[in-house]
Amino acid sequence: MSEFLVFFLHGLAYAGLLFLVSAGLTLVFGMMNVLNFAHAAMYMLGAYFSYTLMLHTQGQLWLSIIVCPIALFIIGALIERFLLRRVHAYGHVSELLLTFGLAYIITELVKWYWGNYPLALNIGGFLGETIQFLGLSYPVYRIFVFACGALVAIILAVILQKTRLGIIIRAAVNDNEMVDALGVNVPLVFMGVFAFGAALSGFAGVIAGPLLSTYPGMANDILVDAFVVIVVGGFGSLAGAVIASLIIGELQSFGALLFPKLSIALVYLLMVVVLILKPSGLFGEEQ
Amino acid sequence: MLQVKDLHTYYGKSHVLHGVNLELKEGEVVCLLGRNGVGKSTTMKSIMGIVKPSQGSILFQGHQLVGKTPHEIARLGVGYVPEDRRIFRSLTVHENLIMGLKKGKKNVSDENLWTIEKIYERFPRLADRKNNKGGYLSGGEQQMLTVARTLVGNPRLILVDEPTEGLAPLIVKDVLDMLASVRESGVTILMVEQNFKAALQIADRFYIMGKGRIVFEGDTEALLSAHEIRKNYLEV
Prior knowledge:
The complex is a heterodimer. Chain A is mostly helical. Chain A has one domain. Helix content of chain A is 76%, strand content 3%. In chain A, helix 2 runs antiparallel to helix 3, helix 3 (61-87) crosses helix 7 and helix 5 (140-162) packs antiparallel against helix 7 (186-212). Chain A is globular and about 60 Å long. Chain B has a 6-stranded mixed β-sheet with strand order 6-7-8-3-9-10, sandwiched between helices. Chain B has 10 helices and 10 strands. Chain B has a single domain, classed as 3-Layer(aba) Sandwich (Rossmann fold), CATH 3.40.50. In chain B, strand 4 and strand 5 (63-64) form a beta hairpin. Chain B is α/β, with parallel strands linked by helices. Chain A binds chain B through residues 164, 167-168, 170-171, 173-175, 177-187, 285, and chain B through 48, 50, 69-71, 74-75, 80, 82, 86, 88-91, 95-96, 98-100, 102, 135, 149-150, 153.
């Protein structure tokens, strides 16, 4: 019983990370129709920036949590404004190639600067401890990771449902040309959402570092799962991203426990089933 | 208020508008007629900046619109009601109306100002469906919502593309009544309409387009007596 609880909690922690990465990916795809292969590279950069920052500040995680997402917001804004917007006129294939190329370039730069091996970080203080409950001891840090994902999900839900900006973003997922014709500066909204998505992805990287270690393959590892999340949840749907992150997180966790050899296949199996039953995803708009 | 001069627009390599000339005066309702594919919608989209004209000039209240983006043009006071009623399907009726609001300067005096409250008062059917998702409305309700969404931004000119297309006759009347009250509030209207009867009811002046050019311009009387033109460019 307690073993199941541990794996359930592991699943929640991974779901938290997965949501933070998927949120930006799904909103950017929903609005701009760009499948951003470089999105997980922002996650990786977040982790590496944080590693270096913590090395020089004796492990101040809080500082990384503030500084790294801001750095990635700026990088995201620059990528959208000066790269993506320029190739937009040439169609989806060019956009796809651009983000694909960027992902490669960033990965190679990371290997060149930080080295092609995993870097471990230890978290001190309260977050590094374990707590006792229901007869088991569990690391506080994993609970913290899930709590971050949940908190961001709540904040995003409030923004999307209750504010004018949120209404604009949801409208742009439906029809961005019409939003522009109603007087909203859509290119600016695109840049903001792209940059904010990059910041969230970077934030996920910061908190993933101490949990999963920081290594050059970390971007691809999470990107694959994040793609499954946005397909299963439905493109452009935040609610879908929440539910799908939880499902994939738990599936990965229990898959590793129950069918270790099949655990990767399970995720794709789920995607195939959803695509057959509801091609637009669990929460996607029927076209 | 609007002068379109020698407008040329291409879609890729196909030359759609071959020098369109139009003129609208403040407060007029002008209807653009013509068969499918002659460039009526493209004219609208070119004025709105959604497709970029390659040549020509569009002056709106002294501002050159060619080269501006749709949101800049919208902020100058041009409203666009597209064909196919493009409402935001996953937003509620109320949220759709909020999307139409524009911040900043008001172009109109207070009594003629359209607000969301005023829309609900004048068009109670939209008030009844306030919290319904746009995607669940009937075709007529969607059309009314598209017009209302543009109105709450208080444009001085609205471009309305085929407002009655695909609607039942009874609903057509509702939509035309709505456009009549738009005009009463002092908004200038340029519309595309395939329904000849509906066009006659609402418009003061007409342009007929044929293959990317304007081939006729005149009022109701002139239109009714221009048998030859109508035979060549309108009737099927």
